[in-house]
Each structure stands twice: as structure tokens, then as C-alpha cells.
Amino acid sequence: MLTDITLGQYYPGDSFLHKLDPRTKIVATLIFICSIFLASTYVAYGVLFLSVLLAVGLSRLPAKLVARSVKPLWVIVVLTFVIHAFSTPGAALFEWKFISITDAGVQQGVLMSLRLVFLIVVSSLLTYTTSPIVLTDGIESLLNPLRRFGVPAHELAMMMTIALRFIPTLLEETDRIMKAQVARGADFSSGHLLKRAKNLLPLLVPLFISAFRRADELAVAMEARCYRGGENRTRLHQLAYAPRDGVALGGVLALTLALAWMRWSGL
Amino acid sequence: MDDIIIQTKDLCHLYPNGDGELIRALDKVSVTIRRGEFVAIIGTNGSGKSTLAKHFNALLLPSAGQCLVDGLPVSDTGDMWAIRQKVGMVFQNPDNQIVAAVVEEDVAFGPENLGVPPLEIRRRVDDALAAVDMTDYRLHAPHLLSGGQKQRIAIAGVLAIRPDCLVLDEPTAMLDPLGREEVLSTVSRLNKEQGMTVVYITHFMEEAVFADRVLVMDKGRIIREGTPKEIFSCVEEIAALGLEAPLAAEVAWHLRNRGLDLPADIITDEELALALCQSN
Predict the structure, then answer these.
(1) For B129-141, what is the mean pLDDT?
(2) Is B125 in Cβ contact with A217 (below 8 Å)?
(3) Residue B79 lies in a domain
(4) CATH number where B54 lies
(5) B167: part of which helix (H) or strand (E)?
(6) Where are the beta strands (DSSP E) in A98-229?
(7) Does the global pTM surpass 0.80?
(8) In A, which residues are within 8 Å of B143 by CB distance?
(9) Which candidate from A164, A222, A225 shows the least CB-CB separation from B158?
(10) What number is the ipTM of this complex?
(11) Fewest CB atoms within 10 A around its CB: which of A149, A161, B73, B93?
(12) Range of the domain at B163
């Protein structure tokens, strides 16, 4: 049950997007997200839509999977549409007492919701095509230059690595403690919300104690294996840029420039 | 002198318990471990065997006395990393010593810490995984492996540091019989084939039988020392310490008491079977 949860949403494959360096993907995703906010006209939205389609195509992910990424956030998308539809001034399409929907509102609502959908799809492409481990390496490498300003790049990456390693172990343990307590008559699945939350307490206490014990043992084991922070550390897997990384970054930059030009030329 | 890898002289370790009293975990322990040896340390819980082992790679420092690793005193903190590189340590709980979410990255953890160049890390990882016979699992997630496999990964992680000596602190205590067998055979193969010095702490007497030498600890002291045959043939003495002699030794002892003519040094099942067949 609990142990079935897979971490992240990595979908293995060997498409163009899968093969990109994680640093390229992170940076390109950030630029793409920024450029989404440059779009203001229908033509610009059309260009954006085509680019998102192209990116999805390059990832060779099943369309269903990509569509599913929007699902958990549909409430926010709908809410965005509703708020814009009701609150933008313009010619009224529908009026009832003090509520009115305007034509400009509907238009604005559709565009805003589209922006959100693009944003969600693009960022989930990053997590679909990059395993959490590689993603961690990428983040560490990108943050590394900021170390001299006091950003603990290595420490953050090590924390993420250990979290990735131990989340399944802790889930397994939670499952075990839960079963042990259910066997002794505990009830985790009935009652109202507050009661259920209360029932979780006897689950959390042993879990926390064991997590701290694990942390302590792991620290000793890491020290025994000569761990002494990020200084002078080397890595088994070294990230290396390939020509395709240049192509991807160039593409995203060209898109951003095109959208910026469209915005200022009013197309 | 050169063939001695670890030597302690009157090593004492004191620590305060919850009430502020000083507990004497080690009391004037003097041991010598030679290169290529397979030494087992046995004793009940709280006899000080883990405390002793933690001195071997400077995880604990002596309160009094000395502990030398390849001639370097562990109390000299300047040599700490050199010492940890010479003596690798495997712990009891396989889950709590694996750092990375992929087997080969975990094995690489040690050499990465030492700043070994990536190509050399690759070679060490491949060698270490081959040495524990886990090459096929190099891209697996550790939490999906069995206890015995996880413990072999932990051993590989230590081997990748290229230590002179392997200290295992009850590595099989949390494993099922199959996992225990896997770990023990891996360790004894490393000792026989690669000449790796092994210090094996255990409370399973059947495992200590495979050692060249057995140290028996009780209340922070080494009270007996000898070959497995010397130690385990004294079944009564072992029992008086709260330890259980290997089953074969115990059966042989009972049979001898009933008047059967069996040699006094039977400690393994095979020896017992052979002796029984011959006595008929």
C-alpha cells in the first residue's frame, strides 16, 4: 500500500529531452516559464502553444501522461478563469444582480488559464524526463557558483540525496508501525478529520524516534566513510554538455526573443 | 612490526551515563591484529566489543591507553582521515549506512569523499561490486534489495575506499539465515582470496568458527583469546559467560559426557558428522 508510492514522476525514456543535460533543462524551463508571461496577443499564444506542443513531442511522452499533470491543479485553473471572468471591466455578456460577466473578462480568463496550463505542462516535462537523482546533480552544479555568497549548494544536494534514499525506507516503516497498531486495535480510517489526526499521533511518535536514530547511525556511517563536507569532493558521474544542449537553449532563447518582439511590436 | 595493522595497549574507554556516573566500557584492553588475519570478537551485549571496534577507525577516542592503526595513534586527530582510509567499517543496520538512492552511487560515496578522480572512482566501484558479487545490481535502488544484498553493498562501499582492514560490527544481527550466509561467505572470501584483514564482531558463535583467532570479551575486558577450537571446546566456560557454544560443539560435549569417545575439538557440523561416523 504505502510502499507503492514512487518518488517524483520520472518517466524513463531516451528522447531528446531525456538526453539533455539536467542543467540545460532547468535553465531552459525557467526561461520558458518567464517567456510565457511575455505573451499577450492571440498570435503570441499561438506561438507558445506550438512551442509547448513541440516540447511535448520532443519528450515522446504519452499525451495522456502530460494531460494528467494538469489534473491536480485544475481547481486553480478554473478559479483563475472565474475570477478573471467576473472581475474584468468591459461590455457585459451576462448580468444578475451585482454579478456580471464581461467579454473582456472571458477573454482574459481564457488566456490566464492557458498560461497556467502551459506553465504546469512545461515544468512537469522537466520532472517527467529527469530522474530525481540527476535533477539533484543539476541543481548542485547550478548552485555551485553561488557558494562564495554563502549558498550551501553541496549541503542542499546531499540533503536531497539522503531524502530520496530514505523516503521509501521511512514509508516502509510507517506501513509497518501502522499495521502493528491496527493489529492492536488502532483505527486510522474512520471518524471525523480531527479524530483521525489525533489517531495519527501514536504513529508519528515512533516514526520520529526511529528517524532520529537512523539519522544518527547514518551520520556515523558517513563519517566512517571519510565524509567531511563538499570540499575537494569528486563525483562518479560528471555532468557534460553536448551539442544538443546548445540547440535546446538556443531554441528557448529564440522563442523568448520572438515573444518579446511580438509584445513590443504589438503583433 | 610492519605486519601489525591494529594494536591497542591498555585501552580504556569511559563515558558518562544518564546519571552522570562514569561507565567503564573498556578496561585495559590490549589486542594485536596482524595483516591478513581473520579475527572474531565475541561477547554478550554490553561487553564492550562495539566500543572497541569504534576505536579502530577513530570514531571513538581512547580515554586512556593507546590504539595504533598502522603505527598511527588514533588519538592524534590530524591522522583521523588517514586512519579511516586504512580501516573501513561496516555496521549492524544495512539500511542506515547506505547514503545514495542508486547502488553504484552509494559505493562511489567513499572515493568521492576522498577526492579520487572520476575514472578511478569508476574502476574502484566496478572492482568493489565484483568483489561482493553484486555487479548485476549496480543500477538498482538499495531499498528494494534483501538485507544480505544491502549488507554486501555496504561492504562494497567500504572496499571502494581501498582499506587495509575491514571491521564489521555485528553485520548479520539484523539478517535472516540466508543473508547471514551471504555476508559471512563474502567476508571470508575477501579474507582468503584478497588477503583482506578482517575484524568480525558477532554474537553468533557459528560465525566465529570461521575465524583464525577468537577474542572473547566480557565487561570491557578481553578474557580469552585463542583459535576457535581452543575457545569453543570449553563448552562450560562459554556457557558461564552467557554465550552459546556452536551447536556441534555442544552436542559433542554432551555426547562425551555420556561416555561417547569423541575428540575434544569438534566445533563444526562437518567435524561432528565425521567423528560420529568414524566412532561407529
Answers:
(1) 91
(2) no
(3) yes
(4) 3.40.50.300
(5) strand B165-169
(6) 99-102
(7) yes
(8) 165, 168-169, 172
(9) A225
(10) 0.87
(11) A149
(12) 4-245
